[in-house]
Protein backbone atom coordinates (compact mmCIF):
# COMPACT_ATOMS: atom_id res chain seq x y z
CA UNK A 1 0.00 0.00 0.00
CA UNK A 2 2.84 2.40 0.85
CA UNK A 3 4.51 1.77 -2.51
CA UNK A 4 1.24 2.32 -4.36
CA UNK A 5 0.52 5.53 -2.46
CA UNK A 6 4.06 6.80 -3.07
CA UNK A 7 3.78 6.01 -6.78
CA UNK A 8 0.48 7.89 -6.90
CA UNK A 9 1.66 11.13 -5.29
CA UNK A 10 5.26 11.23 -6.58
CA UNK A 11 4.48 12.58 -10.09
CA UNK A 12 2.42 15.48 -8.78
CA UNK A 13 5.03 16.50 -6.21
CA UNK A 14 7.83 16.17 -8.76
CA UNK A 15 6.06 18.40 -11.28
CA UNK A 16 5.16 20.98 -8.65
CA UNK A 17 8.78 21.05 -7.47
CA UNK A 18 9.94 21.49 -11.05
CA UNK A 19 7.82 24.58 -11.67
CA UNK A 20 8.63 25.93 -8.21
CA UNK A 21 12.37 25.67 -8.85
CA UNK A 22 11.98 27.32 -12.27
CA UNK A 23 11.18 30.55 -10.44
CA UNK A 24 14.67 31.95 -9.90
CA UNK A 25 13.74 35.59 -9.27
CA UNK A 26 11.41 35.25 -6.29
CA UNK A 27 10.39 32.52 -3.89
CA UNK A 28 6.71 31.94 -3.31
CA UNK A 29 5.81 30.93 0.29
CA UNK A 30 5.54 27.15 0.43
CA UNK A 31 2.65 27.36 2.89
CA UNK A 32 0.53 29.27 0.37
CA UNK A 33 1.39 26.81 -2.40
CA UNK A 34 0.48 23.93 -0.10
CA UNK A 35 -2.87 25.58 0.61
CA UNK A 36 -3.50 25.88 -3.14
CA UNK A 37 -2.56 22.22 -3.56
CA UNK A 38 -4.97 21.22 -0.78
CA UNK A 39 -7.78 23.22 -2.37
CA UNK A 40 -7.09 21.24 -5.53
CA UNK A 41 -7.41 17.96 -3.62
CA UNK A 42 -10.75 19.04 -2.11
CA UNK A 43 -12.43 19.81 -5.42
CA UNK A 44 -11.74 16.25 -6.61
CA UNK A 45 -14.69 14.87 -4.68
CA UNK A 46 -17.48 17.18 -5.91
CA UNK A 47 -16.11 16.83 -9.46
CA UNK A 48 -16.14 13.04 -9.31
CA UNK A 49 -19.58 13.01 -7.69
CA UNK A 50 -21.06 15.23 -10.41
CA UNK A 51 -19.39 13.14 -13.12
CA UNK A 52 -20.78 9.97 -11.55
CA UNK A 53 -24.33 11.35 -11.37
CA UNK A 54 -24.25 12.66 -14.94
CA UNK A 55 -22.95 9.33 -16.26
CA UNK A 56 -25.30 7.19 -14.15
CA UNK A 57 -28.37 9.23 -14.98
CA UNK A 58 -27.35 9.37 -18.64
CA UNK A 59 -27.93 13.13 -18.67
CA UNK A 60 -26.39 13.36 -22.13
CA UNK A 61 -27.23 10.74 -24.74
CA UNK A 62 -24.02 11.39 -26.67
CA UNK A 63 -20.92 9.82 -25.00
CA UNK A 64 -18.70 12.49 -26.58
CA UNK A 65 -20.58 15.21 -24.71
CA UNK A 66 -20.32 13.31 -21.41
CA UNK A 67 -16.74 12.05 -21.61
CA UNK A 68 -15.13 14.93 -23.50
CA UNK A 69 -17.01 18.22 -23.40
CA UNK A 70 -18.72 17.98 -20.00
CA UNK A 71 -15.83 16.28 -18.20
CA UNK A 72 -13.25 18.75 -19.56
CA UNK A 73 -15.39 21.77 -18.76
CA UNK A 74 -16.29 20.60 -15.26
CA UNK A 75 -12.71 19.90 -14.18
CA UNK A 76 -11.25 23.09 -15.62
CA UNK A 77 -14.11 25.21 -14.25
CA UNK A 78 -13.63 23.97 -10.68
CA UNK A 79 -9.88 24.60 -10.86
CA UNK A 80 -10.49 28.04 -12.35
CA UNK A 81 -13.08 28.82 -9.67
CA UNK A 82 -10.65 28.02 -6.84
CA UNK A 83 -8.01 30.35 -8.25
CA UNK A 84 -10.52 33.08 -9.04
CA UNK A 85 -12.30 33.06 -5.68
CA UNK A 86 -9.53 32.12 -3.24
CA UNK A 87 -6.13 32.85 -4.74
CA UNK A 88 -6.35 35.69 -7.27
CA UNK A 89 -6.74 38.40 -4.62
CA UNK A 90 -4.44 36.72 -2.10
CA UNK A 91 -1.70 38.98 -0.76
CA UNK A 92 0.95 36.42 -1.76
CA UNK A 93 -0.10 36.61 -5.42
CA UNK A 94 2.23 39.52 -6.00
CA UNK A 95 4.01 38.85 -9.31
CA UNK A 96 3.08 37.42 -12.73
CA UNK A 97 4.92 34.11 -12.26
CA UNK A 98 2.82 33.32 -9.20
CA UNK A 99 -0.05 32.47 -11.52
CA UNK A 100 2.03 29.63 -12.97
CA UNK A 101 2.72 28.22 -9.52
CA UNK A 102 -0.83 28.51 -8.21
CA UNK A 103 -2.33 27.13 -11.42
CA UNK A 104 0.00 24.13 -11.27
CA UNK A 105 -0.61 23.65 -7.52
CA UNK A 106 -4.40 23.53 -7.77
CA UNK A 107 -4.31 21.30 -10.84
CA UNK A 108 -1.81 18.90 -9.30
CA UNK A 109 -3.82 18.70 -6.10
CA UNK A 110 -6.76 17.48 -8.15
CA UNK A 111 -4.61 15.20 -10.33
CA UNK A 112 -2.88 13.62 -7.32
CA UNK A 113 -6.09 12.58 -5.56
CA UNK A 114 -7.51 11.34 -8.86
CA UNK A 115 -4.31 9.36 -9.38
CA UNK A 116 -4.43 7.80 -5.91
CA UNK A 117 -8.03 6.67 -6.44
CA UNK A 118 -7.23 5.32 -9.90
CA UNK A 119 -4.22 3.30 -8.77
CA UNK A 120 -6.19 1.90 -5.83
CA UNK A 121 -8.76 0.66 -8.34
CA UNK A 122 -6.52 -0.54 -11.17
CA UNK A 123 -3.16 -1.23 -9.54
CA UNK A 124 0.36 0.10 -9.69
CA UNK A 125 0.97 -1.26 -13.21
CA UNK A 126 -0.72 1.86 -14.59
CA UNK A 127 1.42 4.26 -12.53
CA UNK A 128 3.94 5.14 -15.25
CA UNK A 129 1.36 5.84 -17.93
CA UNK A 130 -0.71 7.86 -15.47
CA UNK A 131 2.33 9.96 -14.59
CA UNK A 132 3.19 10.93 -18.15
CA UNK A 133 -0.38 11.47 -19.34
CA UNK A 134 -3.17 12.49 -16.89
CA UNK A 135 -0.99 13.91 -14.11
CA UNK A 136 1.37 15.85 -16.35
CA UNK A 137 -1.46 17.06 -18.62
CA UNK A 138 -3.36 18.46 -15.63
CA UNK A 139 -0.19 20.23 -14.49
CA UNK A 140 0.32 21.75 -17.93
CA UNK A 141 -3.33 22.83 -18.20
CA UNK A 142 -2.82 24.51 -14.82
CA UNK A 143 0.34 26.28 -15.99
CA UNK A 144 -1.50 27.74 -18.99
CA UNK A 145 -4.46 28.72 -16.81
CA UNK A 146 -2.18 30.30 -14.22
CA UNK A 147 -0.24 32.21 -16.85
CA UNK A 148 -3.38 34.01 -17.99
CA UNK A 149 -4.44 34.63 -14.38
CA UNK A 150 -1.07 36.31 -13.84
CA UNK A 151 -1.53 38.36 -17.00
CA UNK A 152 -5.02 39.37 -15.90
CA UNK A 153 -3.96 40.47 -12.43
CA UNK A 154 -1.11 42.68 -13.58
CA UNK A 155 -2.46 43.88 -16.94
CA UNK A 156 -4.00 47.25 -17.68
CA UNK A 157 -7.69 47.49 -16.89
CA UNK A 158 -8.77 47.18 -20.52
CA UNK A 159 -6.97 43.80 -20.83
CA UNK A 160 -7.95 42.21 -17.50
CA UNK A 161 -11.24 40.74 -18.70
CA UNK A 162 -9.68 39.40 -21.90
CA UNK A 163 -6.95 37.51 -20.04
CA UNK A 164 -9.46 36.28 -17.46
CA UNK A 165 -11.55 34.74 -20.25
CA UNK A 166 -8.43 33.15 -21.74
CA UNK A 167 -7.57 31.69 -18.31
CA UNK A 168 -10.60 29.39 -18.54
CA UNK A 169 -11.07 29.10 -22.30
CA UNK A 170 -7.52 28.03 -23.22
CA UNK A 171 -7.13 25.12 -20.76
CA UNK A 172 -10.70 24.05 -21.53
CA UNK A 173 -9.93 23.78 -25.25
CA UNK A 174 -6.65 21.96 -24.55
CA UNK A 175 -8.47 19.54 -22.26
CA UNK A 176 -11.10 18.90 -24.94
CA UNK A 177 -8.37 18.01 -27.44
CA UNK A 178 -6.70 15.72 -24.89
CA UNK A 179 -9.92 13.88 -24.02
CA UNK A 180 -10.90 13.70 -27.68
CA UNK A 181 -7.63 11.98 -28.54
CA UNK A 182 -8.12 9.43 -25.75
CA UNK A 183 -11.59 8.66 -27.11
CA UNK A 184 -10.10 7.49 -30.41
CA UNK A 185 -9.97 3.78 -29.67
CA UNK A 186 -7.14 1.83 -31.22
CA UNK A 187 -4.93 4.62 -32.55
CA UNK A 188 -5.01 7.26 -29.82
CA UNK A 189 -1.40 6.43 -28.93
CA UNK A 190 -0.23 7.84 -32.29
CA UNK A 191 -1.95 11.15 -31.58
CA UNK A 192 -1.26 11.64 -27.88
CA UNK A 193 2.54 11.77 -28.20
CA UNK A 194 2.69 14.80 -30.55
CA UNK A 195 -0.05 16.52 -28.54
CA UNK A 196 1.87 16.05 -25.27
CA UNK A 197 5.03 17.41 -26.91
CA UNK A 198 3.01 20.44 -28.02
CA UNK A 199 1.49 20.83 -24.57
CA UNK A 200 4.92 20.81 -22.91
CA UNK A 201 6.23 23.28 -25.49
CA UNK A 202 3.27 25.59 -24.89
CA UNK A 203 3.53 25.40 -21.10
CA UNK A 204 7.29 26.04 -21.07
CA UNK A 205 6.77 28.94 -23.45
CA UNK A 206 4.28 30.40 -20.95
CA UNK A 207 6.80 29.86 -18.17
CA UNK A 208 9.42 31.79 -20.14
CA UNK A 209 6.98 34.62 -20.86
CA UNK A 210 5.94 34.73 -17.21
CA UNK A 211 9.61 35.16 -16.24
CA UNK A 212 9.86 38.08 -18.66
CA UNK A 213 6.72 39.64 -17.19
CA UNK A 214 8.18 39.09 -13.71
CA UNK A 215 11.40 40.92 -14.63
CA UNK A 216 9.39 43.79 -16.06
CA UNK A 217 7.20 43.86 -12.95
CA UNK A 218 10.23 43.94 -10.63
CA UNK A 219 11.82 46.68 -12.72
CA UNK A 220 8.66 48.77 -12.53
CA UNK A 221 8.62 48.24 -8.76
CA UNK A 222 12.28 49.37 -8.61
CA UNK A 223 13.28 45.99 -7.15
CA UNK A 224 15.97 45.31 -9.77
TrEMBL record:
<feature type="transmembrane region" description="Helical">
    <location>
        <begin position="69"/>
        <end position="88"/>
    </location>
</feature>
<feature type="transmembrane region" description="Helical">
    <location>
        <begin position="33"/>
        <end position="54"/>
    </location>
</feature>
<feature type="transmembrane region" description="Helical">
    <location>
        <begin position="161"/>
        <end position="181"/>
    </location>
</feature>
<dbReference type="InterPro" id="IPR026898">
    <property type="entry name" value="PrsW"/>
</dbReference>
<dbReference type="InterPro" id="IPR023596">
    <property type="entry name" value="Peptidase_PrsW_arch/bac"/>
</dbReference>
<feature type="transmembrane region" description="Helical">
    <location>
        <begin position="127"/>
        <end position="149"/>
    </location>
</feature>
<dbReference type="Pfam" id="PF13367">
    <property type="entry name" value="PrsW-protease"/>
</dbReference>
<keyword id="KW-0472">Membrane</keyword>
<dbReference type="GO" id="GO:0008237">
    <property type="term" value="F:metallopeptidase activity"/>
</dbReference>
<protein>
    <recommendedName>
        <fullName>Protease PrsW</fullName>
        <ecNumber>3.4.-.-</ecNumber>
    </recommendedName>
</protein>
<feature type="transmembrane region" description="Helical">
    <location>
        <begin position="187"/>
        <end position="204"/>
    </location>
</feature>
<keyword id="KW-1133">Transmembrane helix</keyword>
<comment type="similarity">
    <text>Belongs to the protease PrsW family.</text>
</comment>
<keyword id="KW-0378">Hydrolase</keyword>
<keyword id="KW-0645">Protease</keyword>
<keyword id="KW-0812">Transmembrane</keyword>
<comment type="function">
    <text>Involved in the degradation of specific anti-sigma factors.</text>
</comment>
<keyword id="KW-0482">Metalloprotease</keyword>
<feature type="transmembrane region" description="Helical">
    <location>
        <begin position="100"/>
        <end position="121"/>
    </location>
</feature>
<keyword id="KW-1003">Cell membrane</keyword>
<feature type="transmembrane region" description="Helical">
    <location>
        <begin position="6"/>
        <end position="21"/>
    </location>
</feature>
